[in-house]
């Protein structure tokens, strides 16, 4: 088990390395969240120590804390509303570069930062690739008010979109629920398969209590995926 975990972490490092080659002096970067993005942030920190000048916007408080320790120059989207490049991980990727994100709970900020970027590059190990999205539970960020009603409506509209499964409140520490950086809750939807991600995304947006969902559609331009066969670069058609 330890060997498998070590190998997976090695793949994450291998995926992050080519992404760092995309970083140029003077760039405004979005810094992703999660175990794979962690390695990219580490690499940016090393470049900064060696004199690279960049300005970065983190996608979570965890990434902000990490970047501050590395003394990476940071900004916000209010101060820097347009970014050149965002590099982030993913929980699941299909061959059209449609993503499920939000396993770490930062999906709202991640989507806002990705949308504000000219280009989004996803870095991942090969276990994240999937023919059909849904093997990873789909995170949906919701407000606290009316949670039960919101959950029921998510289930009903998702079923109309061809997706059925348990919709479960994400637990946090002890008996408390997980709280996002924005103070919201997350429900994880175990649909197992999402036959039409665009249809489901539209359905979820109809739920008043939904703040954002973890389907990232048409945002990723390139995926850098590392595995037993080496590093593969996948480009979205038309990107």
Automatic annotation (TrEMBL):
Short name of one Pfam family: Rib_5-P_isom_A
Keyword Flavoprotein attributed: no
UniProt record, GO biological process: pentose-phosphate shunt, non-oxidative branch
Listed pathway(s): Carbohydrate degradation; pentose phosphate pathway; D-ribose 5-phosphate from D-ribulose 5-phosphate (non-oxidative stage): step 1/1
Enzyme Commission number(s) of this protein: 5.3.1.6
Description of how the protein assembles with itself and partners: Homodimer.
PANTHER family (UniProt xref): RIBOSE-5-PHOSPHATE ISOMERASE 3, CHLOROPLASTIC-RELATED
Known role: Catalyzes the reversible conversion of ribose-5-phosphate to ribulose 5-phosphate.
Recorded family membership: Belongs to the ribose 5-phosphate isomerase family.
Name this protein carries in UniProt: Ribose-5-phosphate isomerase A
Organism: Methyloceanibacter superfactus
